[in-house]
């Protein structure tokens, strides 16, 4: 158990539904602290390079299109086991498979418009934090 940082994005569907505060409350309720945050609209270049690992997947173009469809809320969460804690709070990628009470079960629309992004490993968390917050 160690103190970690992880990257969170409240995706365009979450921002449109006006649940930014409710989602942040879940992070805070679990003991994660927001240590950096900004609201921004991703352009194709940024969204495309952020999701570069998925470039060969059939949904890549749709995903980039969706992620640029409206403002997102990007933040850095800090706390004990932050990477796993955030993933546990988020729930499975597909909201139909997400456990009851998770963010995606409660707020996601579809496997694509699934309310939140969270880094999936400590290594990717470091990369994703510096992608959006190079000053940290
Ligand atoms: P995550 O780590 O749980 O966010 O899931 P992945 O890393 O596998 O996928 C990244 C993002 O791509 C997901 O959060 C979804 O927004 C989107 N995505 C994943 N699988 C699919 C799919 O089968 N179809 C579509 N349209 N989008 C998907
Ligand atoms: Mg992922």
Structure at a glance:
The chain has 136 residues and is an alpha+beta fold. It has 7 helices and 4 strands, in the order βααβααβααβα.
What does this protein structure show overall?
The chain has 136 residues and is α+β, with helices and mostly antiparallel strands. Helix content is 40%, strand content 21%. It contains 7 helices and 4 strands. The chain has helices at residues 12-16, 20-29, 44-50, 60-67, 82-90, 103-107, 122-132, and strands at residues 3-10, 33-40, 72-80, 116-118. Strands 2-3-1-4 form a 4-stranded antiparallel beta sheet. The longest helix is centred in the last third of the chain and has 11 residues, at 122-132. Residues 54, 59, 62-63, 93, 111-112, 114, 117, 120 line the site of guanosine-5'-diphosphate.
Q: How much beta, percentage-wise?
A: 15-25%
What are the bound molecules? Answer: guanosine-5'-diphosphate, magnesium ion
Poorly predicted regions: none
Could you give the count of β-strands?
4
Q: Please give the largest β-sheet.
A: 4 strands, antiparallel
Distance between the termini: 22 Å
As laid out across the biggest beta sheet, the strand order is: 2-3-1-4
Q: From the helix content, strand content and strand pairing, which structural class follows? A: alpha+beta
